[in-house]
Amino acid sequence: MINEKEREDLRTRFKHHPPATDAAANAFGLVRGECESLAAQIVALCPDGREKALALTRIEEAMFWTNAAIARNQPDAIERFQKLKEDAQASQG
Question: Which of 8, 22, 71, 92 to pair with 1, CA 20 to 30 A apart?
């Protein structure tokens, strides 16, 4: 038998979490872009083989779990994303 806390945890894990704001969509995009950049470097630097395939798989997993963390915790994650943007802008000028 599943208790209510476990049921709520499963709902959170398996429901669709669309971006609630443009900032959330931008955070997802940032993660995807950074992961793609790293993956491109690995493709360029590494010979084909098991190690390269595993490295690319792990980047996909990292992207998935990072975006899941953002999606499942949008208010906190968006606040962190906004702070990251502000810090980056402050360091540029």
Answer: 71
- Domain ranges, ordered by start, for the chain: 22-92
Between the alpha carbon of residue 92 and those of residues 2, 52, 59, 83, 89, the distances in Å are 51, 35, 28, 14, 5
Give Dmax (Cα) for the chain. Answer: 57
User: Could you give the 3-state DSSP secondary structure of residue 81?
Assistant: helix
Checking if the pLDDT of 6 tops 90, the result is yes
The answer to whether 63 and 31 are in contact (CB under 8 A) is: yes
Q: C-alpha angle 79/80/82, rounded to 5°?
A: 65
The DSSP-derived string for 52-79 is HHHHHHHHHHHHHHHHHHHHHTHHHHHH
DSSP code, position 88: H
Which among 68, 62, 66, 57 has a CA at the least distance from the CA of 84? 66
Summarised one tens digit per residue, pLDDT across range 13-53 is 888 888 988 888 999 999 999 999 999 999 999 999 999 99
